Amino acid sequence: MSETISTVIKERRSVRKYDPNFKIKKEEILEMLKDATLAPSTSNLQPWEFIVFLNPEERKDLRAIAYNQEQIETASAVIAVLGDKEFHENIDPVYDSMYEAGYIDSASKEVLVGNARKTYPYAPEETRKNLATFDSGLAAMQFMLNAKERGYATGPMGGFDKVKFSERFNVSDRYFPIVLITLGKLNAPAYQTTRLAIEDKVKFI
């Protein structure tokens, strides 16, 4: 029987030690990413892209860009999560798809498209990047929980040179790197962590 979501959340750890001989099929990684992108996003405009690193030669370069952290090469895969700062380019394909699926009628589609076109293309780039970062973070967390439910280990990594990453892997100006996620089979226990008392972090009003 599948674990409850509460159990998955409580047992998930950020992992650094992976079995270097363990492989995960591309098809399963795609399934996990598909589930991850069911996360909510700004006006459903899905401001994310992913690069999945499997090739050992590419990962040697990625390891150098990620300050020589060994899990880049020992994990089964590394998923780079990118934000899309021009996510307004998704307006037509997103709402066309919703209309064709029967989820919205033509009048609703016209309102949604009109509102999005009046808002996002004219928003400051910093605002669009912040929205894309937030939404991509939701998808990244959903990916890690999905992986844990399937019995895999993950580790989010913010420590890498984002400028060099974009240069080396030919990331277009439309996208910007947010986080790397290592994925694979646990090879050593992840260390335990504690959390500050929730009573000190919550205020009811």
UniProtKB/TrEMBL annotation:
UniProt keyword Magnesium present: no
Q: Which keywords belong to this entry?
A: Oxidoreductase
Q: Where is the Nitroreductase domain?
A: 9-185
Which Pfam families does the record match to this protein?
A: Nitroreductase (PF00881)
Q: Its domain of life?
A: Bacteria
Keyword Ribosomal protein: yes or no?
Answer: no
Q: Which family does it belong to?
A: Belongs to the nitroreductase family.
Q: Can you name this protein? A: Nitroreductase domain-containing protein
Organism, by scientific name, is Peribacillus huizhouensis
